[in-house]
Design brief:
By secondary structure, this protein is α/β, with parallel strands linked by helices. About 35% of the residues lie in helices and about 30% in strands. It is built from eight helices and 13 strands.
Length: about 260
């Protein structure tokens, strides 16, 4: 190798090593190596999650954990959106006819304690026909920089939520109230939201395909695998258009 090529090669290595992610060829294909991942801040991690497709995250979770970590078709967006953030969990327990004016104060306090990159994850016991949140709560979350909200229950004030473009996923749209029907059951505890266990601090990601939950302890490896999947799938589109064969693209990239 002549001197010029050695300099170019060294410069290329330095540039690649200084990037956010690098790719190396391994025996099992392309493997993503994240530069400085161990020192990555929470904000940087979430920023990268916002660029990954939820379908790829779901596939990565299934491969790595063998579990279903996506919410069902019942959970749908009130506003078409894409977001990711750290779960801030709230549970409401059914308490029909209660006249306690402070019954839901804990729910409001939990909102006020959230901040940028929080995702409000609320579960209402048998709450599909009760609105767990509306415009006032959505305004408070938006003002505090929440990434979005996921409600295992109903939502109301939809026109206003759409007006302020605050991202909300819910299992239904209803005009009812939780006041006098529910009582605060806890915050920052494990909840089961539409069949998926969510712990405080887990990563919740959503786009037009739905919602997934990534256990915080496995966030880095799930992200790395999902990024590989996105890279392969996005590369396949051009191959399919060129060859007019999805079979050939799948053989080449091993992704479906």
């Amino acid at each position: 190798m002549n001197k010029f090529l050695r300099i170019v090669t060294l410069s290329t290595i330095v540039l690649i090593a200084g990037s956010v992610s690098i790719f190396v060829i391994a025996s099992n294909g392309v493997r993503s190596v994240r530069a400085g991942a161990a020192n990555q801040s929470d904000a940087e991690l979430i920023a990268e999650y916002r660029h990954v497709e939820v379908a790829s995250l779901s596939d990565a979770l299934e491969q790595l954990t063998g579990q279903r970590m996506y919410m069902s078709h019942r959970m749908h967006p009130i506003v078409a959106t894409k977001f990711a953030g750290f779960a801030r969990t709230v549970l409401l327990r059914k308490d029909e006819g209660n006249q306690d004016p402070a019954a839901l104060n804990g729910m409001l306090q939990a909102i006020d304690e959230g901040s940028t990159d929080s995702v409000y994850v609320m579960v209402l016991e048998d709450g599909e026909n009760i609105a767990g949140m509306g415009g006032l709560m959505g305004t408070a979350m938006a003002a505090r920089g929440y990434a979005g909200a996921v409600i295992d229950g109903g939502v109301r004030d939809v026109a206003y939520l759409r007006k302020i473009s605050f991202p909300v996923y819910a299992t239904g749209i209803v005009p009812s109230t939780s006041v006098h029907h529910y009582r605060f059951g806890g915050a920052q505890i494990q909840v089961t939201c539409d069949g998926v266990k969510v712990n405080p601090g887990d990563i919740v990601a959503a786009d037009s395909d739905g919602v997934v939950v990534v256990p915080r302890a496995r966030a880095q490896e799930v992200l790395a695998l999902a990024q590989q999947m996105d890279f392969k799938e996005h590369s396949m589109y051009a191959i399919i258009e060129q060859t007019k064969s999805i079979l050939e693209a799948v053989k080449k990239f091993g992704r479906l």
